[in-house]
Amino acid sequence: MKKVLIVGASGATGKLLVQQLLQQDIKVVAIVRATSTFSQANDIQPNLDLIRANISDMSEDDLAICLEGCDAVLSCLGHKLTFKGMFGKPRLLVTNTIEKISRILESIDADKKVKIILMNTTGNSNRDIPEKPPLSQLFVISLLRLLLPPHVDNEEAADFLRLHVGQTHKCIEWVAVRPDGLTDEDNVSEYDIHPSPTRNPIFDAGSTSRINVANFMSNLVVNSDLWDTWKGKMPVIYNHA
Ligand SMILES: NC(=O)c1ccc[n+]([C@@H]2O[C@H](COP(=O)([O-])OP(=O)(O)OC[C@H]3O[C@@H](n4cnc5c(N)ncnc54)[C@H](OP(=O)(O)O)[C@@H]3O)[C@@H](O)[C@H]2O)c1
Q1: Angstrom distance (rounded) from CA 33 to CA 228
Q2: Model confidence band, residue 7 (pLDDT cutoffs 50, 70, 90)
């Protein structure tokens, strides 16, 4: 049975991802803050191990125990859309978490390849391939970089995967999933995956339902062909129009 660790499991997408993973018969270790609204009903699911802790405060030793035997680590972390969430600490919540997890993975099992699957955003370009956003988009993104720390966090987390994990962490493979404007739907629907955005994420955003993001991320855990297609890349996901 596959085993995964998920951070940001209590978020709008994270909760759906936990359900998708459990439905695929995957053992899930989910780290959620003590204050989070993650439903108590989830505590009694047999393949779910709920760890009540703040990922930023966890020691590397405690996190290493959670990571033991994991085939993948999935992140749906994101900053709360409140003043404190956007401008308070930790400003690099996602980046610091991915760095910490990568450090631990590298130290605990050098032979086994572990997948890191990061929920990212179409607002972030993949600078490994020639993505050429229009000037208007580049202008707005530059402003977001100055004004919104969460945007910088999303960029730096993906940069860490591209520039460090891809080059130096031999036991880790990664995918950064880029949804466009997030929406909430009850059921998985048809969706399309592209190597790069096909729409302008600022001025002509498409929509991506969170449950489709969760479905794609969980499929990346179990489907080795899908993994081989997207590993080391930043696939963009849109609901099928
Ligand atoms: N909004 C969009 O249209 C859009 C589009 C593309 C991509 N994205 C990206 O998608 C990601 C997830 O989106 P979402 O809507 O599912 O997010 P969400 O519902 O806000 O969930 C965020 C998760 O991060 C956790 N978290 C927030 N601050 C934390 C902190 N200081 N310490 C520990 N955990 C913390 C939350 O825990 P608690 O439950 O305890 O608060 C929750 O589990 C974000 O990175 C966002 O940038 C968003």
Answers
A1: 33
A2: very high
- Domain holding 210, by residue range, is 3-239
CB 15 less than 6 A from any atom of ligand 1: no
Q: φ, ψ for residue 11 (rounded to 5)?
A: -75, 175
pTM of the entire structure? 0.96
Rg of the chain on CA atoms, in Å = 17
Domain harbouring 219, CATH code: 3.40.50.720
The total domain count for the chain is 1
Which one is predicted more confidently, 74 or 146? 74
Check if 123 has its Cβ closer than 6 Å to any atom of ligand 1: no
pLDDT given for residue 109 in this prediction = 62
Closest residue (by CA) to atom 41 of ligand 1? 36
Task: Report CA(198)–ligand 1 centroid distance (Å).
Answer: 24
